[in-house]
Specification:
This protein has about 450 residues and is mainly α. Helices cover about 65% and strands about 0% of the residues.
């Protein structure tokens, strides 16, 4: 039986807890993403409740318990706020049918599945003309969930979500252990465990950042314990889910020393390479990276610096060249990350290093979906930077776009999101002793 502080679950805390549970149920079970007003209203209630609960300085045991309750309340819903699940299950069923998901465009192979379960997946897919960009560990989980679901859309989704939920449970426990190891307040776990964006996008919407975060934190845990082998393997597994953790590599020499950094980096790179072996084919690399290239050259959503540069370019030239601007900004962010890693980096802290690298990458990115920020939420727990949690609340404003028949973004909401965010970043840096948002370390 958990022994809670006297401040826990009184009338003042009970109301936001009940509002949160109700909000998660209404949002994930009964709300379509096209109903943007309802989505934003429910997210607003959830974030207000979140800030209130964290301000109460709930102890870490209570935060874990509430975090699990909130996640379980979303677990059995079908991810209506995202259509990525259809591609997950499509890829999984391709593997079960003996096909390599990296070699076929869904639009090319759909003629083999004109009726039945696969035709339903294809009809609801958001990217039928692009090769899959999901690394191998994702593919193994897609196929496991599809096998267990046995051509049942809801069950396949539920099993995939269960993998993510279990990873989330592991992440929360790892955060507590890492806070303890670093001499920080374990109650800070509430910043991640109770965050609505994290709960809805991972346990609710089945985004695989949940599994990536688990392996990333595991890797950091082993590196904190000076176990380079297990640390490198775990971070390599994180890269095998999502490629972004590879951004930690430039920071390792100053943190671990050159010899240890080389050993760890080799493991981080080799693990995903080994996991790609079952899918090996001469067309694998060009087709996989062709879709990644299109990500920078074609897609744009909820961006910041890119939209500013794009509008300046439009004023000068008269037309958009995302095919040029996207890669150029990606190179610019890479250069900034390298400069920071090798010249400006002062603190030997894995969490701060990757948080800064990802922040730079996202600020220069052409596409920033809200769930991308969940990794930052995990890292920011250790970094004493609250702008990430502000951003996690503001980013959901992008859901307004889905309610627009033309899928047109609101310039006003973009200005609010990034205007408030940049303002808070400046405030937090110039007045670090004043914490407007939640709690100090």
């Amino acid at each position: 039986m958990l022994e809670l502080n006297k401040t826990e679950f009184n009338f003042r805390t009970g109301i936001p807890v009940l509002l949160s549970v109700l909000g998660y149920i209404l949002l994930t079970y009964f709300t379509q993403r096209e109903n943007s007003f309802t989505v934003l209203a429910l997210f607003s209630i959830l974030f207000i409740s979140y800030v209130f609960l964290v301000k109460q300085k709930i102890n870490w045991l209570s935060a874990i318990m509430l975090g699990l309750i909130f996640r379980i309340s979303t677990l059995f819903s079908f991810p209506e706020l995202s259509d990525d699940i259809y591609r997950f299950i499509w890829d999984g069923n391709l593997i079960l049918n003996g096909h390599n998901p990296y070699l076929y465009l869904p639009s090319e192979i759909s003629s083999q599945f004109e009726t039945g379960f696969m035709s339903v997946l294809f009809a609801n897919m958001n990217s039928p003309d692009y090769y899959t960009v999901y690394p191998p560990l994702c593919q193994f989980i897609f196929s496991a969930g599809s096998f267990l679901g046995h051509e049942d859309l809801y069950l396949s989704s539920l099993f995939i979500k269960t993998f993510i939920f279990l990873a989330e449970c592991g992440s929360i426990l790892l955060i507590v252990r890492l806070l303890e190891m670093k001499g920080l307040d374990k109650n800070l776990v509430s910043l991640y465990a109770l965050n609505p964006l994290v709960i809805v996008e991972l346990s609710g919407n089945a985004h695989f950042e949940g599994i990536m975060i688990f392996y990333l934190l595991m890797g950091f845990y082993f590196l904190e314990k000076k176990n380079l082998m297990l640390g490198g393997i775990a971070i390599g597994l994180a890269v095998s889910v999502k490629l972004l953790p590879i951004l930690i590599i430039p920071f390792l020499p100053k943190i671990l020393g050159w010899r240890n950094a080389i050993i760890t980096s080799i493991l981080i790179i080799c693990i995903p390479v080994l996991l790609f072996i079952p899918f090996a084919d001469s067309a694998l690399i060009p087709q996989f990276f062709s879709s990644l290239d299109l990500y920078f050259r074609k897609f744009e959503f909820n961006a910041s610096i890119y939209y500013l540069v794009k509008n300046i370019y439009l004023q000068i030239v008269g037309y958009n060249r995302i095919d040029i601007l996207g890669p150029v900004l990606a190179l610019a962010s890479s250069a900034m990350i390298l400069v920071y890693a090798f010249i400006l980096q002062k603190r030997k802290d894995l969490f701060i290093a990757l948080m800064i690298a990802l922040s730079i990458y996202f600020f220069f990115g052409t596409t920033i979906h809200p769930w991308y920020l969940t990794t930052l939420c995990a890292l920011a727990v250790f970094a004493n930077k609250k702008y990430v949690f502000i951003w996690s609340g503001l980013a959901v404003l992008s859901y307004w776009t889905y309610g627009n028949p033309e899928f047109k973004e609101s310039n006003v909401l973009l200005l609010i999101e990034y205007g408030v965010l940049v303002g808070y970043i400046f405030y937090e840096n110039f007045y670090p002793e004043k914490d407007l948002l939640i709690l100090n370390k």
